[in-house]
Design brief:
It comes from Streptomyces doudnae. By secondary structure, this protein is an alpha/beta fold. It contains ten helices and six strands; from the N terminus they run βαβαβαβαβαβααααα.
Length: 227
Amino acid sequence: MTAPPQPTSPGTPPARVLLADDHALVRQGVRLILDGEPDLTVVAEAGDGAEAVELARAHDIDLAVLDIAMPRMTGLQAARELSRRLPDLHILILTMYDNEQYFFEALRAGASGYVLKSVADRDLVEACRAAVRDEPFVYPGAERALVRSYLERLHRGDGLPERAVTEREEEILKLVAEGHTSKEIGELLFISAKTVERHRANLLHKLGMKDRLELTRYAIRAGLIEP
């Protein structure tokens, strides 16, 4: 029987963790789990993905633990941004969604692990230690199903599903669904309101939708915002 992974050796400084979730109670619970370990310490907390990116750039962070569904910027969007700006940062996705597509999107975004909130008390510490060692982590029970599904798609010649929208369109879709104006979105993304309107028109055309309400429903189904 293989021995469980061990924490870092005595004398090694604990890994510095950034925790991002828009629910304060969830952050509090996860912090209790991580701060109870000698080799992990939470040094920063964020309530949304954009704040997580700002804090990661401002602090000396070893590991970012990101919820998927957050305001302004999702965990996947934040992971993509952090991977570009801080390529040495380790990233874990913490989510309530037991979803194969999210798992592959998380890997594509630069995350090394995917942990379900429902079993965070069991898996999160091990996942954090694996990420810090630069090793992948998949929650127990998912490996066979993920590999089987992927192999079945390869045999059919399907490969991975294509993204319905670009990363920039996804950012704008999320902010539109959250009720932000074109001017506010432009300020958040450092683009002009006119460019926002053009992306919004492209989204409506690409997705075959008529208005903000339909975009919002799509954003909920895609996990970009919570209902």
